[in-house]
Design a protein that fits this description.
- It is a single chain.
- By secondary structure, this protein is mainly alpha-helical.
- Helix content is about 35%, strand content about 5%.
- The strands form 4 sheets. The protein has a 3-stranded antiparallel sheet with strand order 7-8-9. Strands 1-2 form a two-stranded antiparallel sheet. A two-stranded antiparallel ribbon has the order 3-4.
- Helix 8 crosses helix 11, helix 14 crosses helix 16 and helix 21 packs across helix 22.
- The N terminus is likely disordered.
Length: about 725
């Protein structure tokens, strides 16, 4: 191998294995279906032993010892990154907040429940500048308690303890967040190619916040919420108020919670913009190896203490930024505010003629007092009429403000942890909150065999039973652990009226099964799932395979009082490739929508393939359309879908933008019709490799068994009581 002294030597290895060179398949074929989101978080990425169970490990944690250490950390200022006013509370709160605040209700993705703030892109978002320092300050504690505390739990707990250390009576805390070990590839953060690109690109009309692209919640790429300087950096509190309202609603917060969180978040800590942002080095992902994972380091001028640059805005919001008090509202209501520029050139609001004693002191020199500041979002809290009314109540009733904030903070930091049954630790609140999607315990002592017999004799078709069970379970989202068959909320508003649930068919099935469930002493939730199982067993038997679909009783039936209809609305599917249905025509391709649904259900690519093939055979298509029903034996759980999809005696021709004809090559006659959600299993090389497995003559029984296994996984996704 030749070398060249002038160029420093040619690379001595083949570039095909290099991480920084060479073209990937996505580079060559950018329109190809990307199945990576179904393969992320594989066991190969996890460094823990196969039998390691964090949720069991954390139960042996020294909870009180950890809290003591965190309290001590708050005032243990380090010279390499000194604490403002000798207290790290503001920094730790911002870290926890920005971890939890990335959650959005539309698809349940984002949030703090996986510790994903450690990885790109979140670790390098412009809005997360210097949060890498907060995590490094926590490292000695993580090192000490090791496997008994996850990063995900520790990040949120640090913010909660920070509030407690500054005087807030916190509402509670639950452990149980399990770490991931590489970036989440399933979360769409926006299509922009540059950080902080103008928000116009993700709005139909930037003056109409509700037109923001779903499922996004933040107004610009790289922000957690809204631009603190105003819409696209132009101060206008009334316009900002509209964006704040829409953004917080997309993160599951109402107006009162929004005001409480804004005020409570800004009661402590400060903004940093006392310097030149151009002196900051690259973000953590782009930084040199010598930075050892830290980013935004200033090697040109002093960049710590009072000279820190983060948002570019400079100053504290309150007179006493390390104390939980009502100072935020005191300053907002008792002074007039004017626009000024920070030393870093950012727009901020400062009070006019403020009393010296109302100014916060400098973070390093208590003999120096400086103006407090407000962001455009802060000014929105008194300029927007609805927000102002809430702010006035909080100002006049500090105890009420503290209570509302503590509950809102708990909701913010626990929204994606799942139902209360998953909460661990000694500080779990006794209250059951409606946003936790409560479900009562269901009966387990009824005769399952007798119930199955009555279901089989009910007169319902296989398609009706299987499709209804599927619709009940498909709402599950592994992103925030909501939805699923448990609770039987499919019979309640709003789900009973969702077009994708075929309300007329659903009503027929429920009318038939509810009295059967009542007579047996079983929940409707159990009965719906069991009916699907019965249909599958009947169809498998017709295919010559005797199989018993696993079933675990114990699901409960939720009531209207236990259901927050507004928060359940985002769980409505807009498409379901498993039932070959789409609510309308979308720019996103049908196979991509199918992939998204499969990922939320926690399915692997192989499980997705076998489920689609089986569902087509069971006559579960929406409206009983025949697209993709590639068989002459509907209702038989055979592998015909894969056999005929891979049979070269057929050719495939488009009928319109949505459907295709499968035509016999010799006769020229149309045999079947299909959609993209069918043909992708023959066209995509990876999916075809799975389809060919199930098309083989020797895999007919494997197909049935694999279908049953994948089906059971979907039915039990929300059975957290069954998980070890």
């Amino acid at each position: 191998m030749s070398t060249s002294n002038s160029s420093g030597g040619k690379c001595p290895v083949m570039h095909g294995a290099m991480t920084s060179a060479g073209q990937s398949n996505r580079d060559w074929w950018p329109e190809a279906l990307n199945l990576d989101i179904l393969h992320q978080h594989d066991t190969k990425t996890n460094p823990m032993d196969p039998n390691f169970n964090y949720r069991e490990e954390v139960k042996s944690l020294d909870f009180e010892g950890l809290k003591r250490d965190l309290h001590a950390l708050m005032t243990d200022s380090q010279s390499w990154w000194p604490a403002d006013w000798g207290h790290y509370g503001g920094l730790m709160i911002r870290m926890a907040w920005h971890a939890a605040g990335s959650y959005r209700i539309a698809d349940g993705r984002g949030g703090a429940a996986t510790g994903n703030q450690r990885f790109a892109p979140l670790n390098s978002w412009p809005d997360n500048v210097n949060l890498d320092k907060a995590r490094r300050l926590l490292w000695p504690i993580k090192k000490k308690y090791g496997n008994k505390i996850s990063w995900a739990d520790l990040i949120v707990l640090a913010g909660t303890i920070a509030y407690e250390s500054m005087g807030l009576k916190v509402y509670g805390f639950a452990y149980g967040r399990e770490d991931i070990w590489h970036p989440e590839k399933d979360t769409y953060w926006g299509a922009e190619k540059e950080w902080l690109a103008p928000s116009d690109s993700r709005y139909g009309d930037v003056d109409k916040p509700e037109s923001m692209e779903n499922p996004l919640a933040a107004v610009q790429m790289g922000l957690i919420y809204v631009n603190p300087e105003g819409v696209n950096g132009n101060p206008d509190p009334l316009k900002t108020a509209q964006q704040v309202r829409e953004t917080f609603a997309r993160m599951a917060m109402n107006d009162e919670e929004t005001v409480a969180l804004t005020a409570g978040g800004h009661t402590v800590g400060k903004c940093h913009g006392n310097g030149d942002a151009d002196n900051l080095g690259p973000d953590p992902e782009a930084a040199d190896v010598t930075e050892q994972g830290l980013g935004w380091n200033n090697h040109t001028t002093r960049g710590i203490g009072r000279d820190t640059v983060t948002s570019g805005i400079e100053g504290a919001w309150t007179t006493n930024p390390t104390q939980w008090d009502n100072g935020y509202f005191y300053l907002l209501f008792n002074y007039d505010w004017e626009l000024k520029k920070s030393p870093a050139g950012a727009w901020q609001w400062e009070p006019i003629n403020i009393k010296e004693e109302d100014k916060p002191v400098d973070v390093e020199d208590p003999s120096v007092r400086l103006n407090p500041i407000m962001t455009d979002a802060d000014m929105a809290m008194i300029k927007d009429p609805a927000y102002r009314k809430i702010s006035e109540r909080f100002y006049n009733d500090p105890a009420y403000f503290s209570e509302v904030f503590a509950r809102a903070w708990f909701k913010l930091t626990h929204r994606d942890l799942g139902p209360k049954v998953r909460y661990l630790g000694p500080s779990v609140p006794s209250d059951t909150l409606i946003w936790q999607d409560p479900i009562p315990e269901g009966a387990t002592d009824y005769d399952v065999g007798a119930l199955k017999a009555k279901i089989a004799d009910s007169g319902l078709s296989i398609g009706e039973m299987v499709a209804t069970a599927w619709d009940s379970a498909r709402t599950y989202r592994g992103s925030d652990l909501r939805g699923g068959a448990n609770g039987a909320r499919i019979r309640l508003a709003p789900q009973k009226d969702w077009i994708g649930n075929e309300p007329e068919r659903l009503s027929k099935v429920l009318t038939t099964l509810e009295p059967i469930a009542n007579d047996a002493g079983a929940s409707i939730a159990d009965t719906l799932v069991l009916a699907g199982n019965v249909g599958i067993e009947m169809a498998a038997k017709a295919a010559g395979v005797d199989v018993t679909v696993p079933f675990s009783p114990g699901r409960g039936d939720a009531t209207d009082d236990m259901t927050d209809g507004d928060s359940f609305a985002p769980l409505e599917p807009v498409a379901d490739g498993f039932r070959n249905w789409s609510k309308k025509s979308y720019v996103v391709k049908a196979e991509e929508l199918l992939l998204d649904r499969a990922q939320l259900l926690g399915l692997t690519a192989a499980e997705m393939v076998v489920l689609v093939g089986g569902m087509r055979m069971l006559d579960t298509n929406y409206g009983q359309t025949q697209h993709g029903v590639l068989t002459d034996n509907v209702g038989t759980l055979s592998n015909d879908f894969f056999v005929n999809l891979t049979d070269m005696q057929y050719t495939w021709k488009p009928l319109d933008e949505q459907t295709y004809a499968i035509v016999d090559r010799q006769s020229g006659q149309q045999k079947w019709t299909a959609t993209r959600a069918d043909l992708v299993f023959g066209s995509n090389s990876i999916l075809r490799s799975y389809a060919e497995v199930y098309a083989q003559d020797d895999n007919k029984e494997k197909f049935v068994n694999d279908f049953v296994s994948a089906w059971t996984k979907v039915m039990n996704n929300d059975r957290f009581d069954l998980r070890v």
